[in-house]
């Protein structure tokens, strides 16, 4: 792995061009404030990719930008071979991209089942089988189906947020810090669930503070610093890199 490596080497350019999600030379921010500069990132079908990096590096901003929630300034964002750059979230969701933000990711005043139904609001007909699949995947949600989401525990709420995003059976699920705020014994369980979602064929793009665990589980990782790509490599290679360990993984 080389320092400053970007998804812009010859090999990567070819892979990136055919990837499910392909972000190239992205500049984006909030209003006039530019946060991301020249960011490259790709996720292939069924791949599991994580973004790690220091606080304020712009990790969440990358996801928000892909989902149309920031000010897009320049570059390319292609999903399934089509450009989604500059589109609204309401449009982007139709392409097969699911997004679970870190905060306020459920409707607290609605029940669990109403939240799941909201996940499929764009469909003309409610997909009963998707609800059943979600309940099979997260049995606790069936048990709590009539309970207001605001009364769920942190872990249950996170499952609901994921379940809601999965109602449309997206090709790619973007997760912003899914382990945030969870008790330590629930963190592993959450990561196991994400593994299973990926094993079942959904590509995953995840931002995580728990960088070691995220890199251990993913296929590929990006280290983002100051709104720019710093490293990109397999999770194992990043974990083994002395410089990455020292600078970003606490030695
Ligand atoms: N809505 C906003 N308006 C203006 N600036 C913002 C907004 N949201 C985030 N920022 C700024 O963008 C920069 C990147 O923030 P971002 O949340 O993407 O970083 P991060 O790498 O996800 O950080 P953390 O790990 O702390 O969550 C920060 O300087 C932050 O203050």
UniProtKB/TrEMBL annotation:
Gene3D superfamilies: P-loop containing nucleotide triphosphate hydrolases. This is ABC transporter ATP-binding protein. GO terms for molecular function: ATP binding; ATP hydrolysis activity; branched-chain amino acid transmembrane transporter activity. It comes from the Archaea. Keywords: Amino-acid transport, ATP-binding, Nucleotide-binding, Transport. Belongs to the ABC transporter superfamily. Residues 21-251 form the ABC transporter domain. PROSITE patterns: ABC_TRANSPORTER_1, ABC_TRANSPORTER_2. The keyword Nucleotide-binding applies. SMART domains: AAA (SM00382). InterPro entries: AAA+_ATPase, ABC_transporter-like_ATP-bd, ABC_transporter-like_CS, BCAA_Transport_ATP-bd_LivF, P-loop_NTPase. One of its GO terms (biological process) is L-amino acid transport.
